[in-house]
């Protein structure tokens, strides 16, 4: 599996402008990181570098609690943990893509609405 690119979520990513959320603030980005298969926490930290470790952990726990992400602990020295989308989590990718496409289409309007001038 190819590594996640560090610039996967540029600061100008339309997902930050979505007026609605899929879970918490970072959940949609975590889901996108997991769409190509299981990832270790350290792999998720690369494109999600703006998220503090504490908040990323909270987001992963919330997604696991809601049934969107499965956490697998691999025994042995060193112990490793992987996160993967469940079938329910994978079913959320379609609506997520639609929301991102909508945000990209309405990018200028969303920015104008947030501009205090």
From TrEMBL:
Record-level Gene Ontology MF annotations: DNA binding
Keyword Metal-binding: no
Alphabetical list of PROSITE patterns matching this protein: HTH_HXLR (PS51118)
Pfam family, one: HxlR
Domain HTH hxlR-type: start-end pairs: 13-111
Entry keywords, A to Z: DNA-binding, Transcription, Transcription regulation
Keyword DNA damage attributed: no
Name of the protein this chain belongs to: Transcriptional regulator
Organism: Actinomadura rayongensis
């Amino acid at each position: 599996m190819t590594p996640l690119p560090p610039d996967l979520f540029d600061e100008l990513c339309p997902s930050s402008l979505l007026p609605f959320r899929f879970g918490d603030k970072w959940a949609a980005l975590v889901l996108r990181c997991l769409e190509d298969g299981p990832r270790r926490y350290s792999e998720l930290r690369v494109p999600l570098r703006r998220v503090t470790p504490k908040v990323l952990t909270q987001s992963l726990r919330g997604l696991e609690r809601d049934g969107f992400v499965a956490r697998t602990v691999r025994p042995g020295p060193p112990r490793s943990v992987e996160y993967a989308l469940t079938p329910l989590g994978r079913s959320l990718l379609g609506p997520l893509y639609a929301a991102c496409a909508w945000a990209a289409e309405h990018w200028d309007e969303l920015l104008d609405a947030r501009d205090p001038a």
